[in-house]
Amino acid sequence: MRKLLFILTAALLLSGCAPMHEVTREGRQIDEALMGSIKTGITTKQEIINVFGEPSEVVTVLASEVLVYRYTETSVPIYVFGLVENRRNSQVTEKVLEVTIREGKVGSYRFKEVSPE
Question: Any long-range contacts for 24-28 (C-beta under 8 Å, 24+ apart)?
Fold first, then answer.
């Protein structure tokens, strides 16, 4: 009985050392499949907003407007039943869609994803 109690206690304590992850998300998820609907010189600014929602930010560059959509996901390892966070080993994935609008229509767009290796 004592041996069984020891094994159960050890298993419980060791399971608390296995890392879990706390995930936080900022921004609206960017659906990459929808980017196929963007047609340079044809798709309007309003159509972009209808598909992707309001942008995270709007930047004016010369005579163009850049709609910036940004989505960030951060995964932080946590240990000991969530009491200890290891922010140093956080993994951050960022997706950014930039759509340049000229005269009310898409002039160009680019998508980039930066994720841990």
Answer: 24/73, 24/74, 24/76, 25/71, 25/72, 25/73, 25/74, 26/70, 26/71, 26/72, 26/73, 26/74, 27/56, 27/69, 27/70, 27/71, 27/72, 28/52, 28/53, 28/56, 28/69, 28/71
Query: Quick one: tokens of 96?
Result: 């950014």
Place of tokens 């560059």: 61
Each domain of the chain, given as residue ranges in start order, spans 19-114
Q: Indicate the pTM of the whole model.
A: 0.73
Please give the residue that has the higher pLDDT: either 27 or 12: 27
What tokens were used for 38? 């963007």
Least confident of 5-14, 46-55, 96-105: 5-14
pLDDT digits (tens, 9 = 90+) for 103-112: 999 999 999 9
